[in-house]
Amino acid sequence: MTKADLVDLVAKKAMLTNKAARESVQALLDGVRDALKRGEKVVVTGFGTFSVRSRAARKGRNPQTGAAINIPARKTPGFTAGKALKKAIR
Fold this sequence. Notes:
CATH topology of the largest domain: HU Protein, Chain A
Helix content: 40-55%
CATH architecture of the largest domain: Irregular
Largest sheet: 3 strands, antiparallel
CATH class of the largest domain: Few Secondary Structures
Distance between the termini: 19 Å
Strand content: 25-35%
Number of domains: 2
């Protein structure tokens, strides 16, 4: 499912125009992104939790040359599915 498919689904389910549904979906995604940028968790009960995960610095190898390189620490977004979502998929 693409973002456009999601917008169409929201428009049908909520009986909104495509423009209103697109703005609603974009507002939701922007809200999740902004909260993660601030380092907050986003909990959607029954669906799951979006959070920021930290990856430690580590050693790696350049696959072309085999030379050792340092991979810096970084933050990545993470998602943990909620109990209701897991049950619905089973």
